[in-house]
Amino acid sequence: MKAADCATMTDVRAEIDRIDRALVALLAERSGYIDRAAELKPALGLPARIDARVEEVFTKIRAAARLEGLDPALAEMLWRRIIDWSIAREETTIGDR
């Protein structure tokens, strides 16, 4: 269903809830890759935070946001939080080794 197809607030809320569930599932999937990166990085001599990679992600996110009609500043703000959390998670895992 598209937003314009929603006839009631119940329809709108149901679609938002559906999207939220999908976003959570995607974030959980992404988290699994973060955990795998934390397992691989020590053997490669890589730190949790690689500034060039962080900037590459922001560049890609801003471009994707523009393509989808989302405010790139909003997308970057959200991804900064996600990346900060991801790096902290990696640092914890890498530090435990």
UniProtKB/TrEMBL annotation:
Residues 3-94 form the Chorismate mutase domain. Keywords: Isomerase. InterPro entries: Chorismate_II_sf, Chorismate_mutase-related, CM_dom_sf, CM_II_prokaryot, Isochorismate_pyruvate-lyase. Transmembrane segments: none annotated. It comes from the Bacteria. SUPFAM superfamilies: Chorismate mutase II. The keyword Isomerase applies. Pfam families: CM_2 (PF01817). GO terms for molecular function: carbon-oxygen lyase activity; chorismate mutase activity. Its EC number is 5.4.99.5. GO terms for biological process: chorismate metabolic process; salicylic acid biosynthetic process. This is chorismate mutase. It comes from Albidovulum aquaemixtae. The gene is tyrA_2.
